[in-house]
Amino acid sequence: MNLPGAPFLAYRGESLYLEDCALDALAERFGTPLYVYSQAAMLAALAPYQRALAGRDHLICYAMKANSNLAVLQTFARAGCGFDIVSGGELARVLAVGVSADRVVFSGVGKTREEMRLALQAGVKCFNVESEAELEVLSAMAVQEGRTARISLRVNPDVDAGTHPYISTGLKANKFGVAHERAVALYRRAAGLPGLEVVGIDCHIGSQITDVAPYLDALDRVLDLVEAIEAEGIRLHHLDLGGGLGITYTDEAPPTADVLISALLQRLDARGHGHRMVMFEPGRSLVGNAGVLLTEVLYLKPGEEKNFCIVDAAMNDLMRPAMYEATMGIVPTRLHNASPVTYDVVGPVCESGDWLGRDRALAVQPGARLAILSAGAYGMTMASNYNTRGRAAEVLVIGDQAHLVREREQPAELFRNERLLP
Ligand SMILES: Cc1ncc(COP(=O)(O)O)c(C=O)c1O
Ligand SMILES: N[C@@H](CCCC[NH3+])C(=O)O
């Protein structure tokens, strides 16, 4: 059985291992639900990006919204990455890890004045600005703070990334970026505003993209703009092509990062832009298949139409199935010879949408543990406390060493900030 996450995630005999740690033993030691990540898998996912970009002026800015655990950030910081952030909270996280702000780009359509102020004071490398209104506020904030905001405009190239409508971002109908027809005029405006320094251009067309073609279309549109903008005498130093490369959850076959990056660099060279600094903002493709969510089977509930396998993880721990009807692999941490039964794997939360997998053939008994695969990206970062459920613990494994990198949330922490009436 070749699991997404192999070779770092694999059965040895009957037991499922992540690197050299048996997952059943980790569940026993740290409890469930439990997120477990492999550092080697993250670095292996980064390597093809680094290989393809070697010898170029470049910066890989890990999109930390995918997984923002401090130990994960530390892993990528030590490997030489920069970071793509989308909030003051994410800024605080990268600074807590000791990342220098000049390796940080700040994306997002709704940056608040306070977030801008903090990012200006920290000295972020670039603000990826998404509207004219934001440009004006950022200019005013920079003047007020006595700083210069380095900026790039996120252009919306209007290409279809061929992905789920909720995670496509590069179409006109999406809220992201500025229309490419308006981009030149906005660059002119940006160049004339005080407190701003134009340094680049960026785009990000969506997530879980499994094809090179939309990236090449977007790049062509961005390069057309670069040429038009520079013809106005506005110099663009870098080109940030965003993230979005997909991973294999079940049967998707996305290009590898080196195939994608090489194709883009080739196009860049062919169009005479090979000298430019390039940046990418991968999230999912660096961490998705480096992590699993472990959960314990609580009850089996046979029914007339459906059999339910009720587990201790729920939609609040892993929102992707409920939110996007995402299909993620589910396998037992110990293989059994018993014949499998088809179940819907559901959590304890009081919603019919609280399911983690549908129609899964599983040979399990209460007390057995399951691993939900490809859960390293947009798992823990999208978790909530719905039903006053504490968020899961997180463990990062390095070889045979398991590091608890986030403790399980306890009930009292969940209402710590609440107040009784007098
Ligand atoms: C601006 C921006 N950059 C990077 C990413 C990372 O995307 P992905 O995790 O699909 O690589 C996102 C999320 O889609 C994003 O909105
Ligand atoms: N959260 C989404 C992806 C959104 C990417 C962020 N722009 C997912 O789990 O697939």
Detail the poorly predicted runs.
none
Query: Which shape, going by the Cα principal axes?
Result: globular
| Secondary structural class | alpha/beta
Helix amount = 25-40%
CATH topology name of the largest domain: TIM Barrel
Largest sheet geometry: 9 strands, mixed
State the end-to-end distance: 60 Å
Query: What's the architecture of the largest domain, going by CATH?
Result: Alpha-Beta Barrel
Question: CATH-wise, what's the superfamily of the largest domain?
Answer: Alanine racemase
CATH class of the largest domain: Alpha Beta
Tally the structural domains: 2
Number of helices: 12
- Averaged pLDDT: 96
Bound molecules: pyridoxal-5'-phosphate, lysine
Q: What fraction strand?
A: 15-25%
- How many β strands by DSSP? 21
| Computed Rg | 23 Å
Mind explaining what this structure looks like?
By secondary structure, the chain is α/β, with parallel strands linked by helices. The chain folds into two domains: 9-38 and 288-414, Beta Barrel (Lyase, Ornithine Decarboxylase, Chain A, domain 1); 100-282, TIM Barrel (Alpha-Beta Barrel), CATH 3.20.20.10. It contains twelve helices and 21 strands. The chain has helices at residues 23-30, 39-53, 70-78, 88-96, 113-122, 132-145, 183-192, 213-231, 257-270, 284-287, 320-324, 411-414, and strands at residues 9-12, 15-18, 21-22, 34-38, 58-63, 82-85, 104-106, 126-129, 149-156, 178-179, 196-202, 238-240, 277-280, 291-301, 308-311, 330-332, 341-346, 355-362, 369-372, 393-398, 401-406. Strands 4, 14, 15, 16, 17, 18, 19, 20 and 21 form a nine-stranded mixed β-sheet that branches. Helix 2 runs parallel beside helix 9 (257-270), helix 5 crosses helix 6 (132-145) and helix 8 (213-231) runs parallel beside helix 9 (257-270). The longest helix has 19 residues, at 213-231. The termini are far apart. The mean pLDDT is 96. Lysine binds at residues 65, 167, 207-208, 320, 378.
